TrEMBL record:
It comes from the Bacteria. Residues 4-95 form the Core-binding (CB) domain. The keyword Lipoprotein does not apply. Keywords: DNA-binding. This is Core-binding (CB) domain-containing protein. InterPro entries: CB (IPR044068), Integrase_recombinase_N (IPR010998), Integrase_SAM-like_N (IPR004107). PROSITE patterns: CB. The keyword Transport does not apply.
Length: 197
């Protein structure tokens, strides 16, 4: 049973999330775990009432999560961000319910997890993809598509592919006759069929 004003406030917020917001038990357990850790930090800081919490307490809690202590290891940015989101939700709830005069956590931003590069596919999968590709199939897929030579022919003195104006296509043979004039609009048959930007 909640015994302190802070614990009662957290219990009211969790009940609100369960009953009125319909959050899953898994999410509620995660929020409760983050809230308990926050209450531990506030207790060590001498805070007893929700109205006594300041923005400095919220930012201090975030720093504590990232640094850790003798009982808690440091959290990764993603885990600390989840905890700060829970704390922000609790303070917003208290402000909307009128239990406090201001949302002291509203300006505290959760840490941004570092961006990760996409994983490369294995070499054997690359080889299978390349061996399955067929330029002929691509040419016959659409009568109004530019040919492979159009989009890959290099301009003189340039390492980048040039894009030429497509003038005609022979559907049955998969051959395409292109002019040498390069355009920035892409390959097109006429003004009426130019691709839209």
């Amino acid at each position: 049973m909640p015994t302190t004003p802070l614990e009662r406030a957290v219990r009211g917020w969790l009940d609100h999330l369960r009953v009125e917001r319909g959050m899953s038990p898994h999410t509620l357990r995660a929020y409760e775990r983050d809230a308990r850790r926050y209450l531990t930090y506030l207790g060590r800081a001498g805070v007893r009432e929700p109205a006594d919490v300041t923005e400095a307490h919220v930012t201090g809690f975030l720093a504590w999560l990232r640094e850790g202590d003798e009982e808690h290891p440091p959290l990764a940015a993603s885990s600390a961000a989840r905890a700060v989101v829970a704390v922000r939700g609790w303070h917003r709830f208290l402000a909307l319910e009128g239990d406090v005069t201001a949302d002291v956590a509203g300006a505290v931003q959760p840490p941004t997890p570092p961006r990760r590069l996409p994983k490369a596919i294995p070499l054997d999968q690359v080889e299978r993809l390349l061996s399955a590709a067929s330029v002929g199939d691509t040419l016959r897929r659409c009568a109004t598509a530019p040919c492979w030579r159009c989009c890959t022919a290099s301009a003189p003195g340039s390492a980048r592919p040039s894009v030429s104006t497509w003038t005609t296509s022979t559907w049955g043979s998969g051959r395409c006759a292109c002019s040498a004039r390069a355009t920035r609009s892409g390959c097109y048959r006429s003004a009426a069929t130019r691709p839209r930007r």
